[in-house]
Design a protein that fits this description.
This protein has 207 residues and is of the alpha/beta class. The protein has a single domain, classed as Rossmann fold, CATH 3.40.50. Helix content is 31%, strand content 33%. It binds 1-O-pyrophosphono-5-O-phosphono-alpha-D-ribofuranose, uracil and magnesium ion (MG). 1-O-pyrophosphono-5-O-phosphono-alpha-D-ribofuranose binds next to strand 6, strand 8, helix 4 and helix 6. InterPro entries: PRTase-like, PRTase_dom, Upp_B, UPRT, UPRTase/APRTase.
Length: 207
């Protein structure tokens, strides 16, 4: 399993705007869209290709196309915020949904919804969620997808805590994790420090 933190000036700039508590809901989503596109570009750079015969205006030649179906799986709610950016550059991706919220007392995830396209077992599955805190939600999502036959799974989050990364590395060594930032620690309420607060609330204007 690998844990990769993307080192990119634009991502650092945009993520800092998102972290700022005075950033509006509109600008929060705008920057999330832009970071999602940059992250999608980065995580897909080694996706397998197959050869494809094409004809340019000049001659016949051999081009490429992605060899595998991509299934993007946002963990609701906040994960929805990463879907638009990923779809901009992966327009053929199918979308699965897992609905989950953390119990505020125990921090245990509760799954309330799941719906997937067919073909999990032969697709490249990208789970997206802005926040990886204790890792409980991502773990439950990965377990659910594995039970349904998914094998080739990666996790893409904006901000991760060391506690959650360690938990997932031990539990799912086959799942690669990509982050835009690895933060310092979790506070007593299970929030990432410095983090960006509650991603779902900031994205949708709830509190
Ligand atoms: O790693 P964990 O400790 O499980 O925490 C991370 C989860 O918490 C947030 O969702 P939340 O439960 O706030 O639900 P929401 O997206 O509906 O706001 C976040 O979007 C993750 O799904
Ligand atoms: O910091 C955190 C931790 C969990 N979920 C969030 O939205 N933010
Ligand atoms: Mg939330």
């Amino acid at each position: 399993m690998s844990v990769k933190i993307i080192d990119h000036a634009l991502i650092k700039h945009k993520l800092s705007i998102m972290r700022d508590k005075d950033t509006s809901t509109y600008l929060f989503k705008q920057n999330l869209d832009e970071i999602a596109m940059l992250m999608a570009y980065e995580v897909s750079k080694d996706f397998p290709l197959k050869l494809k015969d094409i004809e340019t205006p000049i001659c016949k030649t051999t081009g490429f196309e992605l060899a595998e179906q991509i299934i993007l799986v946002p963990i609701l709610r906040a994960g929805i915020g990463l879907v638009d950016g990923f779809r901009m550059i992966m327009p053929n991706a199918k979308i699965g949904h897992i609905g989950m919220y953390r119990d505020e007392e125990t921090l245990e995830p509760q799954e309330y919804y799941a719906r997937f396209p067919k073909g999990l077992e032969s697709s490249k599955i990208i789970i997206v969620d802005p926040m990886l805190a204790t890792g409980g939600s991502a773990d439950m999502a990965i377990e659910d997808i594995k039970k349904r036959g998914g094998k080739d799974i990666m996790l893409v989050c904006l901000v991760g805590a060391p506690e959650g990364v360690k938990f997932l590395q031990e539990k799912h060594p086959d799942v690669d994790i990509t982050l835009a930032a690895l933060d310092d620690h979790l506070n007593e309420n299970g929030y990432i420090v410095p983090g960006l607060g509650d991603a779902g609330d900031r994205l949708f204007g709830t509190d």
